[in-house]
């Protein structure tokens, strides 16, 4: 006797069962939504960007945001990673690719002048500004560690040149690295305040004048 005549429901097929487990397909492009969140955090910072702001700019509902990215802090952590890959990697590349620390820092500062004033996106650096007025200690500490890690990388590069005799033996690698960090952070703030690429490039020239030579 068939199931229709007996009143018993037919068992779902394997394909139907798999569709049920997967649920409804995502109706938005995740990479596009992440980029929109990145721009929002970059422009307004972590604290001032609410979940409702994010759902509006990402053009998704809150349930979709939580399902795809987790909570606001998890989304921000992914944004910072994405920013480092797409927009903030120029400093590390400069240090790695140039033959000396001075050449690396020179390239870093010049590229910062370009990147921090690029049209069509927020000015300055997300890692420097996103935690402004932030009451979430974990977010503030995470960004601080990134900034300090960048300064430590510069110090290591300078120290290697001191050992190699490229820089004088009495070069204060820590102070010179912190000076570079201060310039990068200052250029970022200046860019947000409206400084042009040419104006920031002039600052880079002045910053390089303090570097010692053998």
From TrEMBL:
<keyword id="KW-0238">DNA-binding</keyword>
<keyword id="KW-0805">Transcription regulation</keyword>
<protein>
    <submittedName>
        <fullName>TetR/AcrR family transcriptional regulator</fullName>
    </submittedName>
</protein>
<feature type="DNA-binding region" description="H-T-H motif">
    <location>
        <begin position="50"/>
        <end position="69"/>
    </location>
</feature>
<dbReference type="InterPro" id="IPR036271">
    <property type="entry name" value="Tet_transcr_reg_TetR-rel_C_sf"/>
</dbReference>
<dbReference type="InterPro" id="IPR009057">
    <property type="entry name" value="Homeodomain-like_sf"/>
</dbReference>
<feature type="domain" description="HTH tetR-type">
    <location>
        <begin position="27"/>
        <end position="87"/>
    </location>
</feature>
<dbReference type="Pfam" id="PF00440">
    <property type="entry name" value="TetR_N"/>
</dbReference>
<keyword id="KW-0804">Transcription</keyword>
<dbReference type="InterPro" id="IPR001647">
    <property type="entry name" value="HTH_TetR"/>
</dbReference>
<dbReference type="InterPro" id="IPR023772">
    <property type="entry name" value="DNA-bd_HTH_TetR-type_CS"/>
</dbReference>
<feature type="region of interest" description="Disordered">
    <location>
        <begin position="1"/>
        <end position="26"/>
    </location>
</feature>
């Amino acid at each position: 006797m068939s199931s229709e005549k007996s009143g018993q429901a037919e068992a779902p097929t394997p394909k139907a069962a798999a569709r049920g487990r997967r649920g409804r397909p995502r109706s938005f492009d995740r990479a596009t939504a992440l980029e929109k969140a990145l721009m929002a955090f970059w422009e307004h910072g972590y604290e001032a960007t609410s979940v409702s702001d994010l759902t509006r700019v990402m053009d998704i509902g809150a349930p979709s945001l939580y399902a795809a990215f987790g909570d606001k802090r998890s989304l921000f952590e992914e944004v910072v990673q994405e920013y480092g890959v797409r927009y903030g990697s120029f400093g590390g590349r400069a240090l790695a690719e140039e033959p000396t620390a001075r050449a690396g820092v020179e390239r870093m500062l010049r590229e910062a002048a370009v990147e921090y004033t690029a049209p069509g996106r927020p000015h300055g650096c997300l890692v420097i500004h996103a935690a402004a007025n932030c009451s979430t200690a974990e977010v503030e500490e995470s960004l601080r560690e990134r900034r300090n890690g960048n300064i430590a990388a510069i110090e290591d590069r300078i120290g290697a040149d001191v050992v190699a005799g490229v820089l004088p033996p009495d070069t204060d690698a820590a102070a010179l690295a912190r000076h570079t960090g201060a310039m990068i952070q200052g250029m970022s703030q200046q860019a947000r305040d409206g400084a042009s690429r040419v104006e920031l490039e002039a600052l880079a020239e002045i910053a390089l004048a303090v570097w010692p030579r053998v």
